[in-house]
Design brief:
InterPro entries: Aromatic_CoA_ox/epox, Ferritin-like, Ferritin-like_SF, PaaA, PaaA_PaaC. One of its GO terms (molecular function) is phenylacetyl-CoA 1,2-epoxidase activity. This is Ring-1,2-phenylacetyl-CoA epoxidase subunit PaaA. There is one protein chain. It contains 13 helices and two strands, in the order ααααααααααββααα. It is an all-alpha fold and 327 residues long. The chain has one domain: Ferritin. It has a two-stranded antiparallel ribbon. Strand 1 and strand 2 form a beta hairpin. The longest helix is centred in the middle third of the chain and has 29 residues. Bound molecules: benzoyl coenzyme A. The site of benzoyl coenzyme A (BYC) has 28 residues, from helix 2, helix 6 and helix 9.
């Protein structure tokens, strides 16, 4: 007879082999509790970020300068709601409860990305969010399409396709503004100056200060370190800035012939810690709006629950009724 310890060891060995062979872990499979908890933490934070991330750009839907820009922005913000929903569903495959995850966000017990705690002051911010924030999201999330947990990796495939459209719409908006007036060009440069450093912070603390990285990389949830992804983002974005005709606000930014990559300055890590802890320019506003939206949606949740209960009662009656009774 197999003892509980031996069974646990066998499960662990099978899990380790799955990871070593670069195969996917699926919801039906045994997994270590710490792996499951790490995934729920990361996926929930990611989902919350998509939902809170609707706010900064959503604020410009009623003020978009043309019908075309309004339609594009509407579509983008709706996509973000969709991303949140795929991700909450992925978390549910790990046994998490969506209502509980939402409660954790609303009570400040779970995080969301620091980047959404900065204000969108002009319409150029909409373009820069598309270019930088969605660009950073692509750098971070394309490798997550190969994440070891199947439902997360599969959700990422569609999300990345949509992020790619988001990034292009942002860049195209900025190209249009740069072809406009001096005032419009100044608006773009100002938005670039404000969003550059917070965008670099999206990738998380430096590797030397990233407590979750070692385990997440060993489990192949994360495929690259925070610093490597930040560096890829800089390498990708600098030529785009040159083409656009804007300056990135980093005096240390320069091409390094030897490494074949760009060297760049150090973000203000104390600012990242402050924003993560709730003390960013818009944390209070974002959370207040999220709580308000949740309260406003209570009747929809109640109606959906009542409807589901009614359907279940009907199904039960039908199952009990003799054939042909017509219930
Ligand atoms: N903001 O050990 P570390 C989007 C936390 S949505 C806040 O390196 P990890 C979009 C971290 O959670 C973009 N918190 O952690 C939507 C951890 O705290 P806990 C969202 C941060 O998990 C709308 C602690 O700091 N993307 O693209 O190994 C419109 C230590 O960090 C941040 C994702 O969520 C931060 N920036 O690595 C447009 C991607 N950075 O949990 C666009 C998925 C770190 O221990 N997530 N923290 O209390 C990831 O790839 C990883 O979770 C991270 C952090 C790279 C973010």
């Amino acid at each position: 007879m197999t003892t509980p310890d031996a069974a646990e060891e066998e499960h662990q060995a099978r899990f380790d082999a799955t990871i070593a062979r670069d195969q996917r872990v699926e919801p039906r499979d045994w997994m270590p509790e710490a792996y499951r908890r790490t995934l729920v933490r990361q996926i929930a934070q990611h989902a919350h970020s998509e939902i809170i991330g609707m706010q900064p750009e959503g604020a410009w839907i009623t003020r978009a300068p043309s019908l075309r820009r309004k339609a594009i922005l509407f579509a983008k913000v709706q996509d973000e709601a969709g991303h949140g929903l795929y991700l909450y569903s992925a978390a549910e495959t790990l046994g998490a409860d969506r209502a509980d995850l939402t409660a954790r966000l609303i009570e400040g017990r779970q995080k969301y990305s620091s980047i959404f705690n900065y204000p969108t002051v002009t319409f150029a911010d909409v373009g820069v969010i598309g270019w930088f924030v969605d660009g950073a999201a692509i750098c971070n999330q394309v490798p997550l399409c190969r994440s070891s947990y199947g439902p997360y990796a599969r959700a990422m495939v569609r999300i990345c396709k949509e992020e790619s459209f988001h990034q292009r719409q942002g860049y195209e908006l900025l190209l249009t503004m740069m072809r406009g007036t001096d005032a419009q060009r100044a608006m773009v440069q100002d938005a670039v100056d404000r969003w550059w450093w917070p965008s670099l912070m999206m990738f998380g603390p430096p590797d030397s200060d990233s407590p979750n990285s070692a385990a997440s990389m060993a489990w192949k949830i994360k495929r690259h370190s925070n610093d490597e992804l930040r560096r890829r983002f800089v390498d990708m974005t600098v030529p785009q800035a040159e083409k656009l005709g804007v300056t990135l606000p980093d005096p240390e930014l320069r091409w390094n012939e030897e490494s074949g990559r760009y060297d760049f300055g150090t973000p203000d890590w104390s600012e990242l810690q402050r924003v993560i802890k709730g003390d960013g320019p818009c944390n209070a506003e974002r959370m207040a709006r999220r709580r308000e939206a949740h309260a406003e949606g209570a009747w929809v949740r109640e109606a959906a629950t009542a409807h589901a209960a009614k359907q279940a009662r009907r199904r039960a009656r039908r199952a009990e009724a003799p054939e042909g009774a017509g219930v």
